[in-house]
Design goal:
homodimer; Alpha-Beta Plaits; 3 domains; six-stranded parallel sheet; NADP binding (chains A, B); EC 1.1.1.3 (chains A, B); sodium (chains A, B); amino-acid biosynthesis (chains A, B); oxidoreductase (chains A, B)
Chain lengths: ~425, ~425
């Protein structure tokens, strides 16, 4: 279709990288016609060229000299992950005039501003759709499609592992540990699941999404983060009884003159579009002034789906490069500040284990009232006697809207009551 | 923020146009900073400047001289609808070097290729996200985000009026006429609902979506179109009993070396993500080789949501114009042909009214077998005796996969049987 070609360097040949290499090889003709110039894969940088490789790709393409590869490329696709050497290599590519596609969420959530500024200074394009929600096109709609609107809130299920675990707990009544073991057995969770179940992975994506949605610069350090380890089968059952489901949500919302960004388990009504996101799927729900409510749904991880997002960026950016158009610089200019979680107003469910004594419920209700928190519902469930012989009761309270700060003070006082054993759960509720 | 400005002409001041005028006026500062140059609204072309106008917009902006306005503009936003004079005006704008944003689906579905070629020839941008599914960003993801993937099928609920009617029938058991009257009362359906209920509106959108998804040129004449007028409360109840819901789907799918594009009522399983699209919402479900299954959901119509899509196009295209980048030409190059409906393989539900005589079911089953169509299920429901005194039965058949052509031949033979009163419904089933 065209005689011209341009040089592409691929860094990394893991789950996503090997899929990208396959598409670049197998679809060369189709890509050339869509871009208007032929992409020539000049090399794949790996740590060890003797390791087993995809046989569909020419073995001579593998190299350990990433720097030489980068310096020879027009477009660099970085799929190695981690902060270094990815950061140094991307900066080298950008300053050398190469456009860069990356799916490196950890790096972007930490050094996104530095990378974007380096791209702007060099007048080249940096694209990273694959860094958030795998194959789901969410960054481009936030940046371009909603560019003339005002986004007020983004709610996302941005981690497939935790959604799989919570969905399994919801549908089978399993405890967290059993659902995690099942996720590990099926390959949805890693042997060390910390980054997923503690919410760090979702927090990185939340920082990237908030930066684009609110035209500001946020890092993962701006994100308040709670995981799902403490969620019990009791919490899930209680949510079900009230018509809710528990999801690990990333929430990015306008908060006065700032933006509050947080990741935490959340009760959402079963009728909410996010409630029906099952298994390891991801979804991002966007609320804006004019568009109203939008939702984007799809596979949030996996080699081929993430490669699809990488290739979408690659074709779009290469096409622009071939046409000779200027890079589109960063639009972060509002520079809204991240706000503290203590300001956030929300409804909560609180679970308490208390001694089964007359008046304990009234005493607890009084502490909430003293702190100015209005209670919406209060349920008491009596348990069979303990081995110690003393009867025990679970109290579950749903509050009206209050601040995190106020709730914290309330629960500190309640925990100190002699009739209260412990606070078993605190989960936010979104409508 | 910037001293430079560029001139914007708005054609039309209806539901969407008035919202666009509001945003251009109220958000001038914010838009200037996002675009990098100040958009100056130089006029709003209307048929009659004396009609009641939005008081937030300077009355002096209204004019009946659309041509003079177009000739003075850098960007033209066309929101008048209909084929003429919209087509002539857009061609005038493009050939004069102005970029154009339009939400005119009827025009694009008929003359999209002509307009795109005129834009490419002039080296200017033509954008039309608002033409499909209102505020839902679907065209940009299809064109850019999935540019390195291979889309195999698109299923869309692309008309809010019919989704409202079908959802009402599903949740209340109402007949079509009552649900339509309710939709009209609530403003979801027009006094003359033909374009919506006959599927013409969805068919126009399907032609636009298929063109982008398959990088080819299709018009509304390539779309097979059936509406929802014939859907009865009985059909809805029978679907419910089998775990299905009836939706008016636009289906665009690869069919050998071509693309089949059609709009028709369809049974989809209740667990399918499209099944939970309620009220007047729209959703587009995309299947592709690498990304797998994606869904985009949101308001499919309305002044503000559609204006959000218009403004997204406007900011993106103006930004590129300000940066001095070239327009992105059309990527339609595969030129796949539209295929005939008779080739399409699908499952069907067929409803029949028959005389309640022994052996009628066996006779009908034999005709299906003679035509090589395998029956999955066959239900028989006996009715109270007719006034005429003759007992009657409803038979509902779900077939395995077969072609439209083969089913047509089968039903022609069955209709001619003396024991068969009539075929009451034929609805396709998607999984």
């Amino acid at each position: 279709m065209t005689d011209r070609s341009f040089k592409v360097a691929l860094l990394g040949a893991g789950t996503v990288g090997s899929q990208v290499a396959r598409i670049l090889t197998e679809d060369a003709e189709e890509l050339a016609s869509r871009i208007g110039s032929r992409p020539e894969l000049i090399g794949i940088a790996v740590r060890d060229t003797t390791a087993a490789r995809d046989t569909t790709v020419d073995a001579a393409l593998y190299t350990t000299d990433a720097e030489a590869l980068i310096d020879a490329a027009d477009v660099v696709i970085e799929l190695t992950g981690g902060i270094e050497p990815a950061r140094t290599r991307i900066l080298r590519a950008l300053s050398g005039g190469a456009a860069v596609v990356t799916g490196n969420k950890a790096l972007l959530a930490k050094h996104g501003t530095e990378l974007q500024r380096a791209a702007d200074a060099a007048g080249v394009q940096l694209s990273y759709e694959a860094a958030v929600a795998g194959a789901i096109p969410i960054l481009r709609p936030l940046r371009d499609s909603l560019a003339g609107d005002r986004i007020t809130r983004v709610l996302g299920i941005m981690n497939g592992t935790t959604n799989f675990i919570l969905d399994a707990m919801d549908s089978t009544g399993a405890q967290f540990d059993d659902a995690l073991a099942e996720a590990q057995r099926l390959g949805y969770a890693e042997a060390d699941p910390t980054a997923d179940v503690e919410g760090h992975d979702a927090a990185a994506k939340a920082a990237i999404v908030a930066s684009l949605a609110f035209h500001s610069e946020f890092t993962i350090d701006d994100v308040h983060c709670e995981g799902i380890r403490e969620i019990s089968a009791d919490d899930v059952a209680a949510a079900q009884a009230d018509g809710y489901v528990i999801k690990l949500l990333a929430v990015c919302e306008l908060d006065g003159e700032g933006v509050n960004i947080r990741v935490h388990p959340t009760l959402i009504p079963r009728k909410h579009p996010l409630a029906s996101v099952r298994d390891a799927y991801n979804a991002v729900f966007v609320e804006s002034r004019d568009a109203g409510e939008l939702m984007f749904y799809g596979p949030g991880a996996g080699g081929a789906p993430t490669a699809s997002a990488v290739m979408g960026d690659f074709v779009t950016l290469s096409r622009r490069k071939v046409l000779g158009g200027p890079a589109i610089p960063d639009q972060s200019h509002r520079n809204l500040e991240a706000t503290s979680l203590s300001r956030v107003v929300s409804r909560y469910t609180v679970g308490l284990h208390v001694k089964d004594k007359l008046g304990v419920l009234a005493r607890i209700a009084q502490v909430f009232a003293d702190h100015g928190i209005s209670i919406q519902t209060m349920h008491q469930t009596k348990h069979p006697e303990h081995e110690a012989g003393e009867p025990e009761t679970t109290i579950r309270i749903v509050t009206h809207r209050t601040t995190d700060e106020r709730l914290e003070g309330t629960l500190a006082e309640i925990s100190a009551l002699p009739t209260v054993d412990r606070v078993t759960s605190i989960i936010r509720v979104e409508n």
